[in-house]
Design brief:
368 residues, seven-stranded antiparallel β-sheet, 8 helices, 29% strand
């Protein structure tokens, strides 16, 4: 379990520490305070395939494959590269850090990603090798480009260059699979939900275990008439989720409203993250205030039963109240609430005591 977190040099985080995390964790704060970025950092740290995870994070929500960046001249001030992979590094003014670190406190194998100039040389087999420049190297006029080197502790686990940028939907090379030996199963639910294709594949993957029944039980919280859910082929080979209702046959899930779709996505994410990590961005999206406490109680129960550690973000006071009610009595190490706030060129993370969360948040108008 990730019992603490230190993030330095990554996106909005110059140097931020969350000293104590629990099985259930909620991050609150105004827009652009770093909540979603923090979920991205956890996703990178806990993920199984560092190179692929890094590229997907750089691509953001577009799910588009990234193209390689152009080679540029190096100057004393640095580089003019503005490719999305370089936006993963913290920026202060016109300069950006050359390394970011994501780790637990006292971690023996932190995730480190360095952005450094490399010389391109050909070996005896005529393959291109990338050799990082050192301070003693005189920068040659050509054959140099910026590259990202990924480390777990002192072990290099990946290299991203403009010529070797994997496509998001392509197969990952054998030597890039499960390079993080301490990796967890990670399910990341974006604020706008899963794509239809992603949701269908996750539902299919639950068929051999208790996950599908858990999902149906959760859907019945909003509509007790639901008996079953099945996917059928739709237009252009897209698959459509159909709900079977008592006495009404089958209806498309999407016709039942945004709340039921969001509940479905949270449920399949929880079931898919068994013994791993679940990340939920903007938990309250599409959900009526009256169901949030009941849902958090269900999430807390499932997290303990399935061995899942949950990290979620919110803007909603109803979500905060539902969360604190759901985790009461769970023990001092079971849950945490952090308020994130931008301070100059960094993010301040304040651990809010669960018994005083509501009083602490009343002073901040951004939580509605």
């Amino acid at each position: 379990m990730i019992d603490s977190l230190h993030v330095a040099g990554f996106k909005l985080f110059r140097d931020t520490t969350l000293p104590k995390l629990g099985r259930l964790n909620l991050f609150v704060g105004e827009n652009n305070s770093g909540k979603s970025c923090l979920l991205e950092a956890i996703n990178l740290y806990a993920g199984q395939i560092p190179v692929s995870d890094l590229v997907q994070t750089a691509a953001g929500r577009s799910e588009e494959s990234l193209r390689g960046w152009d080679a540029v001249d190096l100057t004393e001030e640095g580089t003019s590269i503005r490719h999305p992979v370089f936006d993963l590094f913290h920026q202060a003014g016109q300069a950006f850090t050359k390394e970011f670190v994501i780790e637990k406190i006292g971690d023996a194998s932190p995730l480190r990603v360095q952005c450094l100039p490399h010389r391109m040389v050909r070996d005896e087999q005529n393959f291109i090798r990338y050799i990082p420049l050192t301070q003693e190297d005189a920068i040659p006029p050509d054959g140099v480009e910026m590259a990202l080197t990924l480390f777990r502790g002192d072990r290099q686990v990946g290299l991203v260059t403009r010529r070797r940028l994997p496509m998001l939907r392509s197969r990952i090379a054998v030597n890039e699979k499960v390079l993080n030996e301490d990796a967890s199963t990670v399910a990341l639910l974006p604020a706008n939900g899963f794509s239809s294709e992603k949701a269908a594949s996750m539902w299919d993957a639950l068929v051999q275990g208790p996950g599908q029944e858990l999902v149906l039980d959760w859907l019945r919280m909003l509509d007790p008439r639901i008996e079953d859910l099945a996917y059928i082929a739709g237009r252009r080979d897209a698959r459509m989720a159909l709900l079977k209702l008592k006495g009404q046959g089958r209806l498309p899930l999407r016709s039942m409203g945004d709340g039921l779709t969001k509940l479905f996505h949270i449920a399949i994410a929880v079931a898919s993250a068994s013994k791993g990590v679940l990340l939920i961005d903007e938990f309250e999206n599409g959900l009526h205030w009256s169901v949030q406490e009941k849902l958090w109680i269900a999430v807390a129960k499932a997290a303990r039963e399935f061995g899942v550690q949950v990290f979620s973000t919110t803007h909603s006071r109803d979500c905060i109240e539902g969360f604190t009610s759901a985790v009461k009595g769970g023990g001092p190490d079971d849950a945490s609430v952090y308020r994130l706030e931008r301070k100059a060129d960094d993010v301040l993370a304040t651990n809010l005591p669960l018994i005083n969360v509501d009083a602490a948040m009343r002073e901040h108008e951004e939580v509605r």
